[in-house]
Structure formats: structure tokens, C-alpha cells
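Memo to structure team: turn this sequence into C-alpha cells by end of day. - J.P.
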Amino acid sequence: MSDKYNVEAAEILASEAQHLPISEAAPIYEQLLATFPTAAKYWKQYVEAHMAVNNDDATKQLFSRCLLNCLHIPLWRCYIRFIRKVNEKKGVEGHEETRKAFDFMLNYVGADIASGPVWMEYITFLKSLPAVNAQEESQRMTAVRKAYQRAIVTPTHHLEQLWKDYENFENSVSRALAKGLLSEYQPKYNSARAVYRERKKYVDEIDWNVLALPPTGSQKEELQWMAWKRVLAFEKGNPQRIDSASSNKRIAFTYEQCLMYLYHYPDIWYDYATWHAKSGSIDTAIKVFQRALKALPDSEVLRYAYAELEESRGAIQPAKKIYESLLGDGVNATALAHIQFIRFLRRTEGVEAARKYFIDARKSPNCTYHVYVAYAMMAFCLDKDPKIAHNIFEAGLKRFMHEPGYILEYADFLSRLNDDRNIRALFERALSSLPPEESVEVWKRFTQFEQTYGDLASMLKVEQRRKEAFSRTGEEGTSALEGSLQDVVARYSFMDLWPCSSNDLDHLARQEWLANNVNKKVEKSGLPNGTGLIDKGSTGPTTISNPSAKIVLPDTSRMVLYDPRQKPGGSGFLSSAPAAVVPAISSSLSTPTAKLVGGGSTNTLDEILKAAPPALVAFVASLPSVSDVDVVLSICLQSNIPTAQADKSTTLPTPGTSELSGSSKSHPIPNAKSTRDRQTGKRKGQEEDDTTTVQSLPLPRDVFRIRQLQLQKARGGTSSQQNGSVSYGSAISGELSGSTS
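Reply from structure team:
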């Protein structure tokens, strides 16, 4: 398989193997089971392929490899079929071997919620055993009774059927004895039935057909992980109130089943091992860790947890072997492995052993500055002598002068000693060798140091030097050399205490961002709203912003105009208009081309139309060929072009798309009559588009009003409604009356 954990490819291979001879299918099964060692269905297919050709030795070997790690009822029932087949002709000896096999199976999977058929098969087998004399008959009845009594207290799908069978069995043996036994086990059965109902709710959430895959973070995997966690928590609560040994056995069984599906999850292995350790089964916990490392050999955290368990019980040498396995040959060992082994040696063998190993570890090609820092701080804390730690830091400085992290750790160490002279010298040495783009944190710590140890002059001098360093590399804007109020905030803040409010901090961060981008072309939607960017070279307040964020607008290309006069299936006045024409007007008029038109550009009409968006051209082309300018103006006013208020006293109308169908919002206008006419078409909940465009410029309303008054006078004061036609609406309010004859 090209992808090792390709489930589809694995299913295809398994399906093909079923139709091949066992000699050809065996390598395929081995390949599948090497990738999916807990896939019970593949083990079952593999075993049945050997059973079909009566290869008993190979079958026994396969069962020994898979049974204890795959607590799966179908696989175990296959095992019982094999045992019964092998022993069916051996007489009494074969019956005894089969009975032992049943006990072995029920000891491992008898607590499974799907184990009801197994209990029934076991009881049927016991009833079928021959009894030569009364003693053997009595023994057989006792064995059947014990099997029933174990089955009816186990929450399974077949619990009610088992109880009925048990009642019939006891009544068939002795009614007098049955009454006492049934009354004794009735409460236990009721408790098991109640627990079964609760358990079933959790078990039903689990997908029992998935293969064990490494976690990828998918939602399905997370749901399975959560489902198993709920099942484990349910079993740990001991809802049936059984004895601790039986409860622990059931919890261990649940963990084993969980690991069949969450085989690659280190947290499940760790929980299982630590649960055993807390229960007092340290040896079992160690075995779980060993299985976990076999399943996840690259998991460092499981090795540390395993070593911790060994060390906690006093097994120093086994723990040391685990650490040495992390180190390997020392060439490929990680810095963390070196550090943890140094700490382990200090705890178990003393400081001298840790020192000897540090001398060897620093020669490793993978030794980073972290190893120097860890050992230096350990020596400083344990020896109480700063001289040794100081020498270690100085030795590391020759090798890691280019590491800002090492410089900061060294500075922290010197700060503990109150060695301000060497701290200042360290910063000067580091900043002289570090490139400016890597010295951001060092400069920040230097300014903090001067705020604590230096005077005002030295503090201001360091801040100015920092700004000069970043201005040369473009880390800050063109105003980097200028002082700002945020510098004052940085100097006079302490921990989480600030000399201004949180709103002031946001305002300062925003203003700093604007100042750094003052010469850049910034879109309106990209301006930060009350937040700032992370200042890489400042110790002041830092907030986060995304200046490049864009506003997500709804898709208006599929907008359909609503017209109440339009009958279903018919074509109305506006049905032939393109759906995308009106929604595109606002964006079209806000383009530079539209602005040139509004501003009186000298471009010719052909040039304007050529540069105009297709939506605007389509709108212009769809205008009716009329000579009356009022008709054109009224159609324009009915579009969704947003208009701002001309002044505080008068609000110009801003009809939306829905106003084309006869509905509009109320706008304050000086004409009371048109206001009354507008009430019938008013629609509540419609919002204004406050996008600022060139249309927000004041319209020549006075000239337009005068023209309307002249028209009204010429028409004798008649309303805009006309018989036998659809009115284009009032030119003042931009409405569509929507009246028809």
C-alpha cells in the first residue's frame, strides 16, 4: 500500500485474500496485521482460512498471537468452534478441554455487552454433558446453575432471555428450591438490567467497525475518543456496586477493548497504566507501558512516564535503561534527552555523576544551549556557588553568542546575582554581534533592565538606540526615531499595571499602526477597528489586529426582485430585468469610473462605458428610451444606491431593492401628502446601507424641488398615480406607488 494506513486499500486486500489459496493469502494477511495488529476481523479471516484446510497447528499459533489483544466476541466464538471441533472425538477428555476453553473465554470476554450468546452456548454445552450416575448429574446441575447465576448478573443484550431460561431451569429442578434462589437473585438481576440500559447508551455511540489509525484530528476520531472516555468513566464509577475485584476486572476489559480502536493514542495507554498503578498493580502497569512502547516506539513522553514509574518504585537500573534508550548512541540524542538524563543522574547518583555526563554531552553535535542553561542552573541551585554556574554560562557564550534565548537566560542568571555591570556588558556584547532582526527580544530586555537599574538618561538612550537599530532594517515605520506616548506607557507600566485605561491602550496601538502605514494605501475595510498590531520592538502594551481582513458580503448575483403585482407564472413589469443589475449598482457607482462621471470628468462616453463594470453598462442599456428626465431620475432613485443625509434637517431618500416592488422606508420629507401615500407600501425591518460612496455628496435638491413644483402646478396638483398604467413613483421620495388600473 502506498499509504500505510489506507483503509480502503486494506479492505480491498482483505477481500482479495479471501479468494486466494492460504499459501498466497498468508503474506497478505501478515502485511495487513503488521499495520493493523488489533483488527479482529482480519485475524478472524486469517484463522478461518487455516481452519478451512484443517491446518490445526497454524490455527493454534494464530490464536495465541491475537486472542489476548483482540477481545472481540466473533473472534472468540471462532476460537470456541475450533476447540470443539478438535476435541469432539476425544470423549470425556475432550469435554473437559472444551469446558476449560469456555471458562478461559468467559474469563476474558464474559463482561462484554454482546456476550449473551456466549453464555447461552456455554450453558447449552454444560447441559449436553453426559451423566453416568446421580453424582455426575448433581455436578452437572450445579455447574449449570453457577453459569446461569454468573450470566444473569452480567449486563448483556440477552439478559432478559437468560433470566427467563434460569427461571425455567430452577423450576424444572425443584420448585421449592427455585423460590428461594429466584428471590435471592431477583435484586441482582434487576440491578444488572438497570446498568445494562445505562451502559447501552454509551456503547451505542461507539463504531465497532473502524480500524486503529493514528490520530489525525478529524471530527469522527474525536467523537470516538469522547465516546470511549465516557464508557471508561461509566465503568470506573462501578454503577452496579459490585466488589472491587470484579469492578477492576470490568474496567481492565473496557480499557483493552478501547485499545483495539485507539491503539495509537498515547494518552489511553498512559491512563491504562496509571490506573493499574493506582490500583496497586505495579507489575501490570509496567507490562502496559511495555506494550505501549511496542505500539508507539517513537513516543518520548511514554518513555519518560515509564521511567518515572520505575524510579518511583525504586527500580533505578530499569529506569536508567529507559533513559539510555532515549539517548541511543548519543549522536542522534535530543537536547531534552540530555537534560532529563542529567537530572535523573543528579537525583539517583549525585551531582558528580551529572557533571561527568554534562562534560560528555556538550561534545554531542545535537547539544544546544538548553543543555548549558539546565546544568548551570542546577549547579547554581544545588552548590549554592554562583562561580560554577557563571563559568558554565561563559563557556556556553563562546558557542551560543548568536542565540537570543541563551543571552536572555544568562541575563536572568546575572539579575539574580544583582550583577548589573556584567548584565550591561552582556547586552552590549550580544547586540554588537546579533543581527537586528534577531535582537528584538534582547533589546526589549535591555530596556527593561535600564528601567530597573539605570537612570533616566541611560533609559532614554537605550530606547533611542533600539529605535535607530530597527529603523535601519525597516522593523518600524518612518516615524521610528520619533518619540510616542506609547513609549511613556512602556516605561511607566509594571507587570499588569498600566498608567492608562484599556481603551487608551487600544487607541494607542491603533494610532501606532496608522502612523506606521500613513504612507501606504489602505482600504477602508482593512483598517483595524480598535485594536493594534504586535509591536516587535516595544515593551509597551501589545494587542492583536488583522489589518488585511475583508468584509464578507452576501452573494447578490442570485437576487430576484419581488413584485406583488406579478401573478404566479406570469410576467410582470420587472420580470424581464436582469436579476444582477440592481444589486450591482452600488458597487458600480463606487468605482473610480463612476466617480469621474459624478465629478464631471472630461472622458468621452465611449471611454466611460468601456471602463465601466458590466453591471453598470447593463443597467444603462436597460433604461427606457424616454425624453422626460423625471422618469430617468425616478428609476435611478429606486435603485439601491446608498445616499447619505444632506444635512441635519432633511434626510434624502435611500430606496432599497424592495422599493421597486412598491415598498419603502419612511424618510422625513417636507411633503406631508406623499408621506400619507407612502404608508400602504411601508415595510418594517428594512435596513439602510451605510456604505459611503460618491452618492453621499449633496444632491441639487432645491433645483429638483422647484422642477417638481412646476410640474405639479402644470398638472393641476394631481397625484403621480395614472389610470391604465404603472406609475414610476414620486420623484421627490423615489417611491413606486405600485397602483394599477
